[in-house]
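Summary for the steering committee. One of the milestones for this cycle was to obtain a three-dimensional model of the protein with 4'-deoxy-4'-aminopyridoxal-5'-phosphate bound, which we needed before selecting residues for the alanine scan. The sequence and ligand used are listed below.
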Amino acid sequence: MSYFDNNATTPIHPLALDVLTQSYEDDWSNPSSPYRQSSRTKAKLNKARFEWAQLFGSKEGDVIFTSGATEANNMVIASAARNHSDQARILISGIEHPSISIPAKHCFQDRVDVLAMEPQGLVCLASLQEKFERGLLPVLVCVMAANNETGVVQPWCEVARICEQYQVPFHCDATQWVGKMPIFALHQAFSFTASAHKFGGPKGVGWLVDKGESSWQVGGTQEGGKRAGTENFPAIASMIKAWHECDTLLQEVKAEDRAPWRNNMEEKVCSHVPGTQVIGQGMQRLWNTSLLLMPKFDNLRWIAKLDALGFEVSTGSACSTGSDEPSSTAQAFSLAPQEFKRLVRISSYLSHTQADWNNLGDALIQAYHQLLEDAKDSNVISI
Ligand code: PMP
């Protein structure tokens, strides 16, 4: 099978898996226990935190290892609500992942403001600036770095600059960014989150880097007292290994070299499957992502055909698969309910070659012809 759903999750890198299993053998003891074996695990954990902080140009004390980005996003939002009055407001973009938008509603209730979006799925900087100039200052602004469904890259550095000017904390969900794009500027955000399983690391581990005072579970002094619970050092060690492997590959074939492989696939499909639209086309997008609005047939039928042809792709985001509700991204692009059901998301990763993209393009065209044939044989009108 050719796996093209890497925005949902990536397979673990074999060397990261080696580190994980070895570390479960060597470093299984509780880092907080009092004997030498545990002190060794604790020392390795401290070294890992130091390395992670260096990677992002952050302070060690600002790095909090978590179970993933969902937890880390929840932590930031719950802390913002807890640390401010019940009049405080939060401002989020209209395309945030549910791990931002749902906790925002949960913690801030009717005090959630949504940033206006431009037609091509970009947050509107002018509207942010204008809100701030009018003195409407929230206690937290959340804008993701790159969208999980369209791959559209958000102007998060500019958001960070505007927020800094008005001294409003800016949180950036960088889950789809890390492992695909350069990370050196992320420290410009007041806080940011990401997750190991999006770049060849294990599931169930991620992090928050936070210059503020976010904290979460209580009941222990781990993670500087900010997140109680026995640390999962083997997963952290494996995540770091995955990062190094991914970083090396990213240096070898750069994003600007990979994006044309995706673009060629899109061009080919658009010319052979009349009426196909590329969502976010013409915008700066992650090199690995393509969100296609197919001209006909329900996306689950496309996915089944492609699966049979040896290609695994997705509908919208994995978090909204099976839901009848259009995702926030589909809403930001003002897609009608029928259109939402025709979205096919394709997301490659580092091991894919230009030939893999070509083959996927051919498979999409083949699937189209098969679906047309099926429709001829059927009395059911296809939508
Ligand atoms: N934010 C974004 C943008 C994501 O794509 C995801 C994963 N679908 C998450 C947060 C949640 O990440 P995790 O699986 O680590 O909880």
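Key point for the committee: The mean pLDDT is 94.
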